[in-house]
Amino acid sequence: MSPPTADWIQLHDRFYRKQEIYTMLWKQVDLSKYMMAAAPFGGPLALVRDDRKVLLLQKQQPIKPSIYLYTSSGKLMETIQWEKGHIVGMGWTETEQLLCVLEDGTVRMYNILGEYTQFSLGKEAKDNRVIDVQFWGTGLVALTGSFQLIAITNFDEPRPLFLADPGINEPPHSWTVVPPKFTLSRHVEVLIAHNSTILVVDATEARDERLQQGPFSKMSISPDGKYLALFTADGKLWVVSIDFQKNLSEFATRSQVPPQQLVWCGTDSVVLYWDKIVLMVGPYGDWIKYTYDDAIFLIPEIDGVRVISMDKCEFLQKVPDATESIFKIGSTAPAAMLYDALEHFESKSPKADENIRSIRLELGDAVEACIEAAGHETSHQYQRSLLKAASFGKSFLEIHNADSFVEMCKVLRVLNAVRYYEIGIPMTYTQYQRLSPEALIDRLISRHQYLLAIRICEYLKMRTDRILIHWACSKIKKSNDDEDTICRMVVEKLANKPGLSYSEIAMTAHKAGQSKLATMLLDYEPRAGDQVPLLMSMQEDELALVKAIESGDTDLVYHVILHLKRKLQLGEFFRIINNKPLACNLLESYCKQQDPELLKDFYYQDDRTVDRANLTLMESFRQKDSTEQINKIKAALKLYQEDKEHTFEAKAIEDSIKLLQTQVQLEKDYSQPFSGLSISSTVYKLITINQSNRAAKVRGDFKMPDKRFWWIKLRALVEIRDWDGVATLAKSKKSPIGYEPFVEECVKAMQFREAAKYILKCDAHLRAGLFLKIEAYQEAGDQAFLQRDLDTLREIRDKCPNAVIQGQIDGYISQLASSR
């Protein structure tokens, strides 16, 4: 095992290393003849023949151009046949989708399997052609032939956005994009090298930074968005802050030829590439030169640079601090002493104990440094030795939280799995921390590495639902088996995952034209809210209604019912819901509030005569015109008469019609409103307007009982203070309601004299109490004495204010008391 410092090179006060990650699996690919784009975080490579360069065709090589997708290890993933037109530029999204921008403004977005969606940059791009394009993780900016800038900031909803006019009339010397996450406005900005200065362009303005050092033939923004590296026409590398306020460094490359690539290695050095020469320049003007025999391609990462050549993939990076503290020659850092102690211990040297004692106070930090250094290593041997050193060190600690050790072991196992050349994702520990395990799983899923993705999820205790769903969707798209076989295969695989949603799988089957399979799969969907809308989109309307009813979610049932109402003819609509009581009840409830006509049709087709009659009767109440109201009630009467079990309702409605007709006539005769009144109220109102004879006729027409008529007439006469009429009523014949109501009504009207006229006609046992109500204490006492009612006498005495009458009542009380 070669020493870890074998590939280290010092640049001022720090070390850099260039490690070989893979020997490329492809055969003799001359990168100088291809346009190339690479996804970050160890992502795939896209190559297409550069039609500006002459290419010597090999045997069996197609004449038509193709886009080749490779892993970082050179393994071919997919070949996309290209017949569309000239590609201006290629780039990758943060979700590893390949973007191809064409001259006519068409943008194709491919996944790793070669499936694509397409959108356009608009009329401006089509008319004036696209001459260049720049990408970032979630968007792109295109430069048209009229030197206008068009941005796409969201690939999920691609809407072309015109940036401000930069005001140039010739192609820029170079340009680049500042992603929105690095700008103060949180909107994309474009840096354009024009003449000797730089223009900063956003959606609202183009600002001249008024620089004099240009023109700038290359520019590149650091991964953290804080710095900008510029290559000037006189061969200088100039690094400034992104706001151009701080000059960080200048370096003379002595080359008048601009580099083919200018990229950042992390955030502290810049890498330039000319034909077969790579120059790394540090922040203090120190430099490192690498030479290559063939063309290469540089891929900037957040912590280094991937170098792709014909025969290998390398990673150039600053040596991590933890690694440097351990392996640097002559290092006496605690972590180095711990690592050295392990070597002595394995060789059974007593110096191991001496090393441990010397770092006793810093042993915890040394353990953590060894753990971190293990994460930054790609060599399995050094990973093991560093973790072993950490384990050795923590055995001397009385208290130590081993979570970081356990977590690092898990991370390294995952990283080693995805770095394997068959998978070809050379992700570093730093990139893994930035990307997240979930995003890594998504990348494995997009590559159809389902088994590895599932094993990683199970190892990290993450849910595997999305992996299985993607597998099932892919199986449906590619399988040639019959639908029953595919359904059985999918269900068996997903059976031990309770709660897993089948809706996305069913939708894939539906889009693939396998509707029967989609319906079968939806039977296993546990969530009705996902199941029902999909059934509706598949035209499985009745099944959608059944599933909505089974869910018990009334909102969902309403959603299906209203969808069916809009979509179907009435007959078909009613046929579907007729044998479903819950759906019928909800439809009735809805129609009563929103659509009475639909409810009438529903009752008619279901032969619900009485319900139709009730509905018609309710409609009559809302009519303002009396004639219309009568017609509606007659229609309801006809419906009630069809049902022999509702003769009472029919008779009541006949009376209602008769009353309404009478009220219409009364309104004509007396110019008073009568409509809407009951029979009793009609009679009452007639008496109050001195139409007693007409009231008596109405009473006779509707066979009003005597008791009710007397009550109504008495109250009406009292209301209009017709005391003579009250007396006449009382004398007309024996009162069917007695005479106590006469007294009570007069008392309510505070007419005590009138009330006194009728008290003696009341029952004897009531007279004392009635006289007391009208404050006739003398008469009350006499009646109570006659009834020999001691309690009432005492009550009268207590309430009577007259001393003479009180004495007389006391005498009555004494007589009754002595007689007992």
From TrEMBL:
The keyword Hydrolase does not apply. This is Probable vacuolar protein sorting-associated protein 16 homolog. Residues 500-802 form the Vps16 C-terminal domain. Residues 4-406 form the Vps16 N-terminal domain. Essential for vacuolar protein sorting. Required for vacuole biogenesis, stability and to maintain vacuole morphology. Keywords: Protein transport, Transport. Belongs to the VPS16 family. Pfam families: Vps16_C, Vps16_N.
